Amino acid sequence: MFYADQGVKVNDKAQKLMLSAFALFATLLFCVGGVHANEKVTYRLKWLRNVSVIGALYAESHHMFEKEGLDVDIKAGGPERDAVRELELGYADFGEASADQVLRARAKGSPVVVIAQLFQVNPLQWMYRPEDGRIRNLSDLKGKVIGVTYGGNDETIMHTLLAEAGISGPEVTLFGVRYDYTPFYRHKVQLWPVYRNAQGPIISAQLEKAGEQIAYLDPAEFGVQFVSNSVITESRTVAEKPELVKKFLSALLAGWQKALDPENQGEVIKTLQTYDPDTPRPILEEQLKSTRELVQPHLTVVIGAIDEKGWAQTEQIMRTQKQLAGEVDLKALLQPVNVSFKKGQ
Amino acid sequence: MLYRRVFQFFIIYFLFISGLMLLKYCLGLSDYVIPALSGMFQTLIAEYSQYSFATLNTMTVTVIGQVVSVIMAFVIGITGRQSTWFGSFIKVAAYNIQAYPIVALAPILFILLGDGFLTRLLIAAMICYFPVLLSVLGIVSKPVEDIEHFYRVTGRMRWQLEVKIRIFENLSQLTTVITGSATLAMAGTIVGEFIAADAGIGYRIRIALYQSDLAKVLIALFLIGITIAVYQALLELLGIAIKRAWTGR
Predict the structure, then answer these.
(1) H helix or E strand, kind and range, residue A345
(2) Measured between CB atoms, does B85 come within 8 Å of chain A?
(3) ipTM surpassing 0.85, yes or no?
């Protein structure tokens, strides 16, 4: 009897234990399943995590991708990273690339497509000291020493500006630039290419300390529109996963919209400081202000809108300078996606 | 020897290209990711002359850089072979310089010396001198007892003779190290050019990468490979000639 009672007790205990274990297992399964419910997506940035990609950083830090049911892995870019190649090789689902990169890839048969354009005005501009003479016309470039990155798109843009002005080779001196700004600081070079929103405020602050002022030569003001960074993906993704593309772009562009809203400046600066703790706050504020003007130059401009005329001019410039093997079908390349922002985004 | 090295390089290069083509066509990659053979051929025709001159420019710096580094390695190795305070100091200094990555030092050099010939030369020499130095130190610090004993007991041993004996006995090893260090000198020069110079094949590769043009990079690799293969073969032949002249065999 004793043994039988004990056996019943043991069976009860075992049953309870099994039930508890099952409940725990089911809860775990639910939780794990819940995490994996979000679709995994990789987004390769063009450059490092700084103000030029603030929209993506804001969307990430404010869980905007999760709200769309996406688990987005944002990977920093750099000179050795090429989002177009990563898309083809399957390392990324979406990416950021400059227009020249995209056009070159497309001319060589890459299935890349542009789904949104982040910068309406190219941030790549030339800084100069207005005390040496303001550049009001392109003919003012005559006799100047101008910095260019040989092989970079600033070289392409400068050649176009010079051709527009009818300035021939011997009338200007092109100077190969690198990371070191000393030739500009020492007045050896009069115009130096910089990313106006990222490097511009830093250099400007340094020169202000020395009592110097800087101005910018913006090629767009002289009619040269050379498109900058855009959001890209593969044509197959657009065709086969239109919902994914829509969700991703909705969250990303909502991130940009929020990040550029002056009301959110405090939060945006906080986000920037997590990646760039060494840059003083006033400079970060200036960088953000400048980015705002480049991404949304007028309130009528929709963030992410594709400037088809700008793309056509960029393609024309590259073909004129023999940087493209053939014509690129812009209709097939530019595939804007209509996105709507959800409430609360 | 020269033909064999060039032939072997061709085999390696074409195996590499075949691997790339296999990948390209198996994965259905565009010419942007991996260029087609026809595209590479067109690039070769278009860029051959410019890239050949750039490679020769790099090679000139490499050869001079290597000569400088071999001289540096011998001076430091012979001075540092003694277990005196100065010998140990020289060794510590030489090892420390090697501990700093060249990508960190190169920008400083370019700022101080400009992006001309001298900086590239210095970087090439800095990268390739260390393995030569280690070998020289190893060789000149190790006595060849059988031969040196005679000169010591007869009181005719001098440091020049000591070094000469040790180098003579290890000539094959030294030739191998010097030949191998040519690759490092070339790599050093290219790294320097890639970082900041305004000439040479490293500079051309940087421009090609800016333009995302892998065909140009592959052509550059071909020219670098073939040049270094010829140079190494010539160094080996020089080593054999020196040995023959020295030993009479």
Answers:
(1) none
(2) no
(3) no
